[in-house]
Structures are given as C-alpha cells and as structure tokens.
Write a structure and sequence with these properties.
This protein is α/β, with parallel strands linked by helices and 201 residues long. The chain is built from 8 helices and 5 strands; from the N terminus they run βαβααβαββαααα.
C-alpha cells in the first residue's frame, strides 16, 4: 500500500485544477495544495523550509509539482532541485495530460544540471561577446571635418538602411536636427547650411 495523501505545489491556477483526476493520477485519496503564488514573494532560502513544513503537517506522503508541461517548464532545474529537497520517498511532476514523471536526485544530476550549466555558460559567452563589441566600437576614432557655408559643391548622402542594411532610426532627422523626418525640410536645411543640394536623400 502506497501513500494515501499528496502535497502538491501547483503552478496552475485554481480554475485549472481537477482534484479528482489529480488524485487518480497520483494514486492517493486526498491532496494538500500549495499555490505557486504562496511562494512567489518569499526569499529563495525560505521556500524549501516552508514547503517541507506544509508537507509534514499535511501527513507527508507523495510530493508533486503540477504544471502545464514539464518538458517545457520554465526554471525546471530549480523546481526539480526544490522537489528533491522535500523529505519524501515519492516525488513526481505531473502535467495537465496526466503524465507523471518521477523526480530523483539521480535524474536531477543526469538530465537537468548539464543543460542548466550549458545554458549558463552560453549566456555568459553571449554577454562577453556583446561587451567586447561595445568596447571595440568605443575605441574607434571618428574624424569630424569642419564645413564652411558654401565650401562644398556636391553632397552624397548614403542612406545606411539601403546601402548597408543598418537601421538605427532617424539618421536623416539627425542631419536636419529635427525629431520628425520631413524630406523636403531636410533638403531645404542642407541647402541653407551648405549651399548645395543633396540628391540622394
């Protein structure tokens, strides 16, 4: 005879819980639910103790995590670790379709930690690559040439979105010193400032 009671950490809303099916899937007669909202604002260090206390007071038995889809569950490694910290002989994850998966320390170490570690280092590498690109860009020297009125006879304005596929927003507006890009106004301002016409605007 197995345990007749289950403590369930539910990641679903109350409206999505079918108590009878859950008891049948877990092979128990009764359940004590811990809504995820009860632990959402608690410090992480206090969550295992809080769950262990409720599990013990409700009579122990099965500990389960109820979710939409365990394979696609966000923060799965953290939830798996939390389940393994509950003093219960039977720990499982159960989804809305009734799929029940055993949660063990061995499963945690073999399936979850390698993936979590890989994702962690991939994220660190991405952040490092972005910072390196930013540093390289900051080190580039930008040469600015003073322009006197009427000193330039021809202007070629290369639109970065067409020539290089770079779309940063408002480059024409920056040249014209206006927030709203108006091509006629831009041409007029350039003519006034430089005494010429910009044919590629």
């Amino acid at each position: 005879m197995g345990p007749k009671h289950a403590t369930i950490l539910s990641l679903l809303s109350v409206e999505e819980i079918d108590h009878n099916n859950l008891c049948r899937w877990l092979g128990v007669d009764s359940c004590t639910f811990i809504p995820s909202s009860d632990i959402k604002d608690k410090p992480r260090s206090e969550i295992p103790g809080y769950i262990n206390k409720i599990h013990k007071e409700s009579g122990g038995g099965v500990f389960a995590i109820f979710c939409h889809d365990w394979d696609r569950q966000a923060n799965r490694a953290a939830l798996y670790t939390l389940a393994c910290m509950v003093p219960s002989q039977i720990r499982v994850a159960v989804d809305r379709a009734g799929n029940v998966r055993s949660l063990t320390w061995g499963g945690l170490l073999s399936s979850e930690y390698p993936s979590a570690v890989s994702q962690f280092f991939a994220g660190r590498k991405l952040v490092g690559d972005i910072n390196r690109k930013i540093d390289e860009g900051l080190k580039e020297t930008v040469t600015r040439y003073p322009v006197a009125k009427g000193s330039i006879k021809n202007i070629i304005y290369m639109k970065t979105d067409l020539w290089f596929g770079i779309i940063a927003g408002g480059s024409v507006g920056h040249v014209a010193r206006t927030r709203t890009i108006d091509h006629n106004r831009t041409r007029h301002i350039l003519q006034e400032c430089l005494g010429t016409y910009a044919p590629f605007l």
